[in-house]
Amino acid sequence: MTRYQDVNRILIVVMILSMASIAPGASASTAAATTIVSDLHEALIESMKAGSEISYEERYEQLQPVIERTHHFPYIARFVLGRYASRLEREEQQQFLEVFRRLSVATYASRFDNYNGERFQHVSSREVSPGRMVVRTVLVTSKGTRVQLDYLLLRRDDRWAIVNVLADGVSDLALRRSEYAWLLQNEGFMALLEELHRQIDDLAQRS
Amino acid sequence: MTPRLAAAFAYWVRLVVSRAGWFTLGTLLLAGLSLFHAANYLGIDTDTTNMLDPELPFQRAYDRYQQEFPQYEDTLVLVVQSETPETASEAAKRLVQRLGAEKDLIKAVYLPRGGDFFERNGLLFLKTEELTLLVDRLAQAQPLLARLADETSLARLFEVLAQAVGNAREGGLELERVLAEVDRAVVERLEGRNALVSWQQLMRGEDVSKVAREIVIVQPRLDYSRVMAGRQAMEAVRETIRELGFDDSEGATTVRVTGKVALQFEELISTLEGARLAGLLALVFVMAVLYLGLGSLKLMSIALVTLFVGLSLSVGIATLIVGHLNLISIAFAVLYVGLGVNFAIHFLLRYRECLEAGEPPRVALVTTGHHMGVALTLCTVTTAIGFFAFVPTAFVGIAELGLIAGTSMFITLAVSFTLLPALLELTWPTTATKPGMALSMPGWTSRLLALPQHHWRAVCWGAGIAGLAAVALLPRLQFDADPLNLRDPTSESVTTLIELLAAEPFTRRNLVVLAQRPEEVAALSERLEALEAVDGTINLFDFVPPEQGEKLMLIEEMELLLGPVLLTASFTPRQRSADDVITALAELRQALRDSEPESGSSEVTDRLGEHLAVLQERLERDTAARDRLFDGLRHQLLSTLPLSMQRLQMALQAQQVTLDTLPDDLLSRWRSPDGTYLVQVMPAEDLGQLEAQRHFIQAVRNLVPEVTGTPILQLESGDAVVKAFQQALLYAFGGISLVLLVILRNILLTLKVLVPLLLGSALTGAVMALTGIPFNFANVIALPLLLGVGVDNGIHMVYREYYVNETVSNVLQTSTARAILFGALTTTVSFGNLALSPHRGTASMGVVLAMGMILILLCTLVVLPALLRSR
């Protein structure tokens, strides 16, 4: 019995090793990326389960480190600004990044604030090209409604981080980029910052 | 000399008459053989570039380019037009696929700006800023596309639009444009039409009103052993277009054919049609004039038979000495009819005159031979000189016509003194002439014609003034070197090309520079682009786009932004129940009504709202038509979506482009197998104007002397032809003067014959300058030829007056005047028929020749008698 277990263990190790030699780091990458997403999901579930026991501010504090660790905000911030990114001063860019980061955490904190038996299911993880991963998950509510959540991750500095989330195919990056582009074009950078601040305040008040 | 020649002709005619049967049979047999030979061996060369001496420097430069890059030569250009870029591109691809399979007839088919390579890497050829803008647009479109990816249906589209209208900021995709396009589709649907909406244009922000155009280049295998080398390939292409349903001019997608092969094919058809029409009409007119002039059906028939036999022999000679006809020398048959019949008229009228003077037929024939031999020989020589004058020039196109037509003049002479008397002898010998037919002109005409003699001083002064005025106008004469202007302006290949040039003005008039080394290419391009007259250059290295790293990153961003769903969905349109669609429609109408005016799209929303109301009303009234309406709308609004998404998905797979990854056919279009590089130079301004063309060419040539290309070919050809024309005019004039001097042996008399001729020519040029008719490759033959033909009238008159010893007042009352008039009339009329040709080059040749003939005839009839009167 133990002998068979040993053989099995050896076989598994061999298989993992041989896969690693065929696609170096591929499975390790997939696992790492999947872990990032599940870390986020775990944090979200925890936040939901805490429900009204904790305040919005506490929830924000709780989620912030996980969200910042799992997301690549500098990349996302630069991307949502699009062609305007290069027109902003360094300081302005930094300012934007900071507010944007806060808005993102606030959005999570206000959305995931009560628990009704929701669960996240991992569907697949696929490295679409070197350094780019799609982790497909499904959020199932207690009523059985399914929302498909696709996470796009990039590997930066040997670490995987989320850069885009698509809910039923609709891209968060795309929505934000058009919204911000509209504001930047029609009302300017200061108006954009103000709008983001207003949204953060709204989220805080609503909760 | 002359009396001896005259005697020789008399002797010959006597010989012919004594063995009339044998001579007739022999001539007919020879004519038959000649026709047979021509039918088997006479080719047609439709290549206008072959019309000039291939040894000219600019021809050689072009030749070298052709040898290095044969794929640009002898092509068919298929212009695909469709209402959307998606359908145009699909149609082009299907054409490439179908035609590519016709290996026997088609060497290669390609999309100069399409195909896998450009579909995959096209985004890299946008400027970085354009690409950034595209990322923005796609970001705007993403939510809408994602919802459509989930379910591509009308109901879903209306639902998504209803949501978007409620939120202008999130609406994306420049909501107004989308709504305007939906509105257009609905309006067209209500009117029962099928206008498609292009998602590509919406996504890329392209102008939706622009006609989508794709170009397909076809290199046919040309079978030069056939008269029309491109015919089989042309027919195969047309058949394919028909089978694919792209031939309907009302259809959503049409394909039209142009390009050198098509232009030449259709040009040849129009020329042949013109030559056939003109030939037929010339024959009818000539028969009428012959009948009027000769006053006898039998004589007319004899003249016609002689004409045909002469023509048959000439065609055979053309086959022997040249081997082919070209687009200009095809007109030779008509010229022949016009000129050849002249000889018969002169001979027959004089014959009748002799008969009426009471001579027995045989004697009359010999007398006619004696009297007419010298004059007609002279005419033959002078006319032939007019034709031959082009032979020593570089203008091969007309030199060939000159050689053929000039030689055929001698055949005419021979036939007129062989077959004509033989036939007369065989058919006429015992028949008595009907007396009473006046061979001279009616009294009032001769009185009219006698006027110049009475008022000879006034005529001389008038002629002098008219001559000076005409010469003053001559510098305004233009030469039109654009072969496009010679072609039938209604033919498909020409209209398509003109349209293409208007839409993409720089497609044709580029110059071409060849370079041997990559460094040379770069240096040349840089120096050329610095020129003011140059808009830009294209060479192989331009197909390796700059800033690829940055662009590839932007493309990667696009992919991140669009997400995996959009990039794998098929977007196949789905049908939802009519009730669902109606519900969604009501939702959209409600959203449009509620939309805030400040969102800026009030006009479009109002309009769409109204039209949707009409649609809804129609749906309620006619429930049976629901499915049909929805099917139509679904097709209009959603059918291009799968294609444009496929293209987008493909475009996102762009990869680093290097010289090594360029596809072979693209590479070979810009670098020949032996490593010669092609650099195309585009002009900064439209080259429709001759001056702009010269300026551009000169600017480039200063840098690169061995530059070539169509504009140079045209310009240089024009210059070469003008030079050839001047030489020919000089040769013709010199030759004719010499002949006149030899024959007349009198300088003053020679001058007197030449003056009306020069005056007529100058007047012809002046009228052309005044009416804005330019010289071109075809009609440039007119003046030297007119000299050769026009002098005949003078010769006949002078000859009759001086050598037949009749009084001047008498000459207009003889058969000679009648012959001159009717001869000139037939010539003019038959030349004039060329004007009806759909081929504009042939037509202008007809116009100029007919006009010139009339003017020269007038000068001969008015000025010559006045000059002869002056001592």
Describe this structure in words.
The complex is a heterodimer of chains A (207) and B (871). Chain A has helices at residues 2-22, 26-50, 56-70, 73-81, 90-111, 172-186, 189-206, and strands spanning 119-129, 132-140, 146-156, 159-167, 170-171. Chain A has one domain (2-206): Nuclear Transport Factor 2, Chain: A (Roll), CATH 3.10.450. A five-stranded antiparallel β-sheet of chain A has the order 1-2-3-4-5. With 207 residues, chain A is an alpha+beta fold. Among the domains of chain B are: 2-43 and 266-427 and 441-484 and 714-869, Multidrug efflux transporter AcrB transmembrane fold (Up-down Bundle), CATH 1.20.1640; 511-543 and 670-688 and 695-704, Alpha-Beta Plaits. The longest helix of chain B has 35 residues, at 260-294. Chain B has 871 residues and is mainly alpha-helical. At the A-B interface, strand 2, strand 3, strand 4, strand 5 and helix 6 of A face helix 6 and helix 22 of B. Chain B: This is Membrane transport protein MMPL domain-containing protein. Chain B: The chain crosses the membrane at residues 20-42, 277-294, 300-323, 330-349, 369-391, 403-424, 728-748, 819-836, 848-868.
